[in-house]
Amino acid sequence: MDYEVVIGLEVHAQMRTATKIFCSCSTSFGDEPNRNTCPVCTGQPGALPVLNRRVVEFAIRAGLATGCRINSGNVFARKNYFYPDLPKGYQISQYELPVCEHGHLDIDAGEGETRRVGITRIHMEEDAGKLVHPDDRSGVSYVDYNRACVPLLEIVSEPDMRSAAEAVAYLKALRDIVMYLGICDGNMEEGSFRCDANVSIRPRGQEAFGTRTELKNMNSFRNVQRAVEFEVERQIDVVESGGAVVQETRLWDVDKGITVTMRGKEEAHDYRYFPDPDLLPVVIDDAWIDAVRRSLPELPRARCGRFMATYGLAADAAGILTGSRALADYYEAAVERFSRPVPVANWMISELLRHLNDDNIGIEDCPVTPDGLGSLLKLVDDGTISGKIAKKIFAAMYRERRNDPGAMVEARGLRQLADGGELEGIVDTVLAEHPAEADSYRGGNRKVFGFLVGQVMRRTKGTANPGMANDILRARLEG
User: Fold this and answer.
1) Angle 326-377-324 (CA atoms, 0-180°, nearest 5)?
2) DSSP code for 97
3) pLDDT in tens, 228-238
């Protein structure tokens, strides 16, 4: 039987605020356990929450960027469940009246097609703490409440994705947006951008959804894809062997490459939602929404299209350069210095990103500035240095954290040799030293030409103008 896959994602994005959602404790990651805590975020009796206005602003930004309706009145609710890392015995979240609803996100579905994925809701909530399980076989677990009360946006999609690849494309597009907006750092390894996947199958052509399972513990795009693909095959095997898929929550086991049962899947009524009596309804007026809308940056998909239209870049190159807001800003700054967009793009993708990837750092920490890169490419363009020399200079700029390529070229004596008379003399010397190779070329062995060019470049320490050297050498051999 031919099956259709149905996937919906619940994404949790940790907001980049300095303090937590209902108290003034720091949101800093990696601090000593239980250092960033207070009576509010540890649920002490009598402690009252106070909403962080910045969290609401970030939620509005996310809603506007995904085409959502911003609800002028929204309410916080208590989501009741009991777990060691939840100090109050409930989580402050939103339920019936979330801050944003009914949006969408367009993704690339492959083969030039675009799929629109609906966004059901975006709501604000606090994070839980973190359980730490040591490897000493002591049977003891520790609780770190630093993360408790850290602000989250939960972004719930419609079940509109039909493959693991589409789910990953949606996740990447959503991650790009929240990072462009500056509301989340997108770090999946640290858990500041994480997702749960709801996966089901149904016979192709059937309208009713099949029984879904929820997948957790996926901390990378690769693991999301692997987990969803495994779960789809598992459900097909269950159905075709005469069984029935059970609604449950399953964990992705990275080492074994399988999903395993965690618990039965809860429904909304299991959490006994009710409005939080300690928090007033949040009222968002049109003036606030308009002010946030005016502050929105150009978003990744629109910027990618503009790079293609304005700078003449191929789709792949534009996609890479708009992969982060900082990288796209760097590119446009470099183009202002050297107004040939395609060479700038090629250099950034082939040289600059290679160095950054080797050192595992981001463009924000790049030692070569956009002005430095643009200045280097101008030296290539005006014939001062060759492309090969430029790569050496760039590596030195990166290594020495310098941005004066002109001075570096002069100090190293690497200015391109373009004096015809001097080059002719060097070519004559090379041919005199290698008569056998010269005769071989004249006898029809064209492969030896590269060797002779290499000898010219060696004598000039790579500074000879390649085009002129080739022309003079060929004229001498064929004249």
Assistant:
1) 15
2) S
3) 999 999 999 99
What pTM was estimated for this model as a whole? 0.84
CA atoms of 141 and 306, how far apart (whole Å): 52
391: helix, strand or coil: helix
DSSP lists the bridge partners of residue 151 as 126
Question: Domain extents for the chain?
Answer: 3-288, 298-411, 420-478
Site of tokens 């002109």 = 406
User: Residue 360 region, left (φ>0) first, then alpha (ψ -120 to 50), else beta?
Assistant: left
Distance (Å, rounded) from C-alpha 254 to C-alpha 358?
25
| Structure confidence by residue, pLDDT tens digits, 281-332 | 999 999 999 999 999 999 999 999 999 999 999 999 999 999 999 999 999 9
Number of neighbours of residue 211 by Cβ within 10 angstroms = 16
Q: Please state the φ and ψ torsions of residue 207, each to the nearest 5 degrees.
A: -85, -40
* Fold held by 420-478: Arc Repressor Mutant, subunit A (1.10.10)
Cα–Cα distance for residue pair 177/189, rounded to 1 Å: 18
Asked if 374 and 352 touch (Cβ cutoff 8 Å), the reply is no
